[in-house]
Amino acid sequence: MWETIELRELRAFLVLAEELHFGRTAQRLGLTQSRVSQTIRALERKLGTQLAHRTSRRVALTGAGERFRAEAGERVAALEAVLRATSDRGRRAAGTVRLGVVTAAVVDARLRSGIDRYTAAAPGNAVEVVGLPFQDRFGPLRRGEAELMVTGSPLCQPDLVTGPVLARLPRMLAVGRGHPLAAFGDVSVEDLADHPIADLDIELPDELRAALTPRRTPGGRPIPRVGARVREVSELLLVIAGNRVVQPVTGAFAGTYGHPDVVYRPIRDLPKDRFVLAWRRRNRHAGLREFLRTLTTGGTACSST
Known about the structure:
The protein is α/β, with parallel strands linked by helices.
């Protein structure tokens, strides 16, 4: 099974081999500890050997892990350098900027106008819209598979830069058509204490996760979660349609995803979602800088970094 090993799995192991700590590894990779653990186990399964001993307090490489680290480390770094350089040369020559989006509704009139201006500015300019995965939505940006992405805010990550607000959209509650809350024109966030929400399996910075699915209402009451973790949009829509959960979502989500038995109600006492562009701090892609200029969104770093 070694033929199916992915570069992200090798990268995760090499960071773990440096840190010998799942928490610090997860922080460096922008993942959860459980996702790092799953990735290492998948790599071990494909190699057919154990690479690390795990206890409640520490991580130690096995003999096979030490040998694999020594043999693979420099080769993976060299491969990444070749891939990055080749990709950068190709994108700079073509002027193609890859824009990552989670939902189609975030590409609004302002952003479409900026895309049109950029593509019209030079013959080689193009913008490729890339759909981001439900679970690992920041992964493509951090791995260089997209030059920038549209994301909610606040976002305060040391490796990322954000621009000014592109759009403000109301927060919505997705409810089943037969759910009691569907009868109301709008709802309060306090209602979430009485109706469980889904546990979303999404890799998100803590500040965004807290804004997207708060743990408590403003009044201090806990917001319950139920069932297994939801991993895809279709799973989420089906559990909502079945009246098992209600779910706070962004206005962009509500504008993109529909289901005959799911309705959306405004949450009157949550602030509007603010959508911004985010890009890697050290990204030198010439097309990215030109595209940002067409949007007049001079990048600003998070104030806490």
